[in-house]
Amino acid sequence: MEPAVLGGKLASSLVAPLVKKLFVTGGPGAGLVDRPVRLDRLVSFRGERRSLGEEEVRGLAGKLVAGALDSPGEPPFPPEEADAVADALAARLLALGDLDMDDVQAVRLGHAELAAQLRRRAAGSGDGLCTDARYFLDSATEWACLHVLEFFTRRSTFVARTLVAQTRGQAELIAKVDELIARVPRPDARDTAFERRYLPYVAEQHNRITIYGIDLRESPDRWPLEVAYLSLEATAEDERTGALPGEYAEPEHTVRLAAEDALHTRDRVLLRGDAGSGKTTLVQWLAVTAAQDGDRIPYVLPLRTLIRAGALPSPAAFLTAVGCPHTPPEGWAERVLGAGRGLVLVDGLDEIPAAERHRTRDWLLALIRAFPGNRWLLTSRPTAVRADWLAAEGFRELSLTPMREPEVATFVRRWHRAAEAPEFVTRLLDSLRTKRDLARLATNPLMCGLICALHRDRRGYLPTGRKELYDAALTMLLARRDRERGMEAVELSEEAQLELLQRLAYALVLSGRTEMAVETAEGIVERALPSVASAAGQGDAATVLRALVLRSGLLRRPGEGTLDFVHRTFQDYLGARYAVEEGHLDVLAGRAGDTQWEDVIRMAVAHARPGERAVLLRRLLAEDTPRLTLLALACLEHATALDPAVRAEVEARAGTLIPPGSTQDAKALAEAGPLVLELLPGPEGLTERQAHGVTVTASLLAEREPGGALAVLRRFRGHAALGVRRQLVGTWDRFDARGYAREILDHLDPTELFLTLTTAAQRGAHAGMRPWGRLEFRGAHSWDEILACVPDPGAVEKLLLVANPEATDMEPLAALGRLRSLSLLDCGTTRGLDRLSALPLESLSLQGADLTGLDELTSLRELSLGQRLPGNHLTDSLPVAARLRQLHLGRDTTRDTGLRGLSHWSTLYEVTLSCPVGTADWTELSRLPRLEQLILDASVVDIGPDAPELPVVRTVFLRRARGQDIARITTRLPHARILRI
Question: Where is the NACHT domain (predicted)?
Fold first, then answer.
């Protein structure tokens, strides 16, 4: 029906009289004494002045509905639904008395929202009505609410009270505005106009990230900040007040917080971070968010730019010094800082000469003292200034931490989204998980960006040899990055830095350490200086070493008096480079048995000449151990040129190990360590046994290298073989529950698979997964916990509980309305089996249950019992009305009953007996007309020569038959075709 026609059906002549009767009439005046006037006191069928009962309301609603039906034209809904519509409308009108609001609030709410509240209060009204009837009901409710609000606005008390409320509100608002004007001086109109131009400029100017040092084809060097920004973590030592004499002093501990929240708890922060850790990006993020929010005026001041201009700028020259094209009104910067509205971001203390840093400190402190109340952030590499450089001025020191695996994955996904190259994401993430040295390199945004660019430039493949990756990283960190950032040329050439760095690296590799004393490092540099001409004239060893630490981006000072490389992989790479240059192949081969030398040897193969590679690989094969054979195979990735015979020998020897053809082979392969993960193939080209072996190997290595193992297993999540899928399900407990569920389990074909849950974490993960039809719970889980973690109870068809003492009452199982199979093994004394009669249960396995109510489960087709049965006859406790096809009885089950009464279940097709079987029991078996499959424990079968034959049995399984005379059994089975012993 058209809205205009329906409006005619609900004319004011029908609705207005109804509304007037619903409410009592108040007297004149503002009604301030009774204020607020609640609706439950205004409605005439509730409150103190009742003049209308609920029956009268229903009658009024009926008249309105009847009037709409009697009006000319097409009826708005079928007439036979008139009573139902009238009842629903009355229920909604009566709900007026339940609303917790007064008439002023109702008018402010509006008629549509008021109608919506009545529909919610009268939940279920309208259920079962046809579409036209529901449409009429909703429209009638809204028309009624419109007239209700019209009625309120015409009441004299409403009008007067509204005027009083408005007068009071205006007075309060005027007082608050006056107070605000007194506290905050009115900004000059020119300031406001300028900030409307300046803030969008800042947001646009700093809303793109630049990755320096990347000059690869098709790789973007800039992308939107809001797309690619990654929240990093910063740490600080918790600040505690000293304990008084005799008091306990709490130990210091590390505080972690999101880096972008650094200025939320302290107005002055000194943020330290290694090269490429994201300091400048964080400065950009703070500037952009402040500009967009408008609560602070950001100033981004890169020190390398300010120093080139000569004198450090005053606030009036901030924008000119950084090249901002907008000219502010005179005195604007001082007014902003004087009002405490500024966010001053000073970036790159380490990027200016050491002689300028004290001048910079004085300039910064002068600004802070002149303009208190603003927020200040200064960034620096860790070793540029001492630890307490600004502590006396109230600066809190924070340090950016290396990226962890989830942050790396987030960075990679955002990088590729910004680069519009999503097709390369998964393969790169798998490489980062399986290639350990690559993963150790990707610990900050700078190196992650380089890896992404290299990977995309090669159309989704990393270099055949990782030497290219390290070479590109070293070139960027040692030379190109500072040059492209517009900094002064590094005093040491790239080759000179490499020569000194590789000597330091080799010394650490030989010692088996990752840190050395600064004095030791200075001694190594001092001995090297005479042979490094470009460095010899730059000062003594201590000066040259300080320059290496500050500018190379490869060395750092983790503690007072110690030195290390920012990434262990750089140490191994440079150490291997020096070992090859010096011809130390014997040293490398002699240390091959040490797992710490694996990466050094692989990098040595990358640096070596073809003849040297062949010698080193043959030395590895000569040891004839699986681990070194696999190490030789891993080295082939880096051997660009190699004697074909050596390559073939390595591949042939490794081919006997990979892929593993059995579970035993997989276990032996896993003993070679995490190195194996990046060598595992598949699933393409593998047999089912080989695919299963690969998944077993990866599962065994999960504890030592979970990320790499997960990457291997992910490749098999679409495999069809049941054995492979069982292995993937069975290794869930070796991984993070939610991550494994998301990456593996939610992609598996669940056919014929039980999903096993043992921990609370797995229950929590399962609650967010797609439904599984077969579930197994091991250990103690309450019914509430089990049912809470099942996303769709109706999807569960098979349930297995093992060693669960809490699941004793069967009543909660009624929630699993489609449950067909239930197994309760070692679950204590289970009670209430009769509660299962409402379920379509076809299979039941019990151990230790109270069998009361078992006879009521008439839908059973398969029954397995592992406990002693009561009574003298099987029919005393087993369900006599069930048409059983399979029956499994345990060792002690029939101690009192024997098999007496078994012939009652003439539908039995398969019987499994671990209990003693005598001649009488055999006779019961002979009376089963459909028994085709029999499983017996041969050691407890004791039948005489007069035992009857079992003519219909076709398949026999005899367990524990060793040393037994099975002829006495087989002669009684004349038509058996399959006999398994």
Answer: 267-581
Nearest Cα neighbor of 384 from 473, 273, 254 is 273
Q: Which amino acid is at 438?
A: L
Kindly write down the DSSP assignment for every residue of 492-524, as one continuous string: S-HHHHHHHHHHHHHHHHHHT-SEEEHHHHHHH
| SS3 call for 329 | coil
Q: What is the pLDDT of residue 539?
A: 73
CA distances from 32 to 24, 29, 37, 97, 162 (A): 17, 8, 9, 21, 10
The secondary structure of residue 836, as a DSSP letter, is G
Bridge-based pairing state of the strands 233-237 and 396-400: antiparallel
Distance CA 335, CA 182 (A): 16
* Of 613, 570, 577, nearest in space to 470 by CA: 570
Q: Name residue 104's beta-bridge partners.
A: none
Number of neighbours of residue 189 by Cβ within 10 angstroms: 9
Tokens 């996904």 correspond to: 413
What does the chain come to in residues?
A: 981
Q: Is the pLDDT of residue 755 over 70?
A: yes
> In this structure, are residues 885 and 861 in contact, taking their beta carbons and an 8 Å threshold?
yes
Spatial distance between the Cα atoms of 230 and 276, rounded to a whole number of angstroms: 13
How far is Cα 949 from Cα 880, in angstroms, rounded to an integer? 25
**Phi and psi at residue 786, to the nearest 5°:** -65, -50
Strand order in the sheet with 555-556: 515-517, 562-565, 555-556
Residue reference for tokens 């209700």: 148
Note the pLDDT tens digit of each residue in 601-626.
988 998 999 999 999 999 998 888 88
Distance CA 517, CA 293 (A): 48
Burial group, residue 177, by CB count within 10 angstroms (0-12, 13-18, 19+): exposed
793 vs 477, higher pLDDT: 793
Q: Is residue 822 helix, strand or coil?
A: strand
Residue 752 one-letter amino acid: E
537 — pLDDT class (breaks 50, 70, 90): low
Of residues 159, 38, 187, 191, the one with CA closest to residue 101: 38
pLDDT for the residue numbered 490? 42
Instruction: For residue 474, give the 3-state DSSP assignment.
Output: helix
Distance CA 970, CA 978 (A): 11
Report pLDDT digits (tens) over 899-952.
999 999 999 999 999 999 999 999 999 999 999 999 999 888 888 888 899 999
Q: Cα 112 to the chain's mean position, in Å?
A: 41
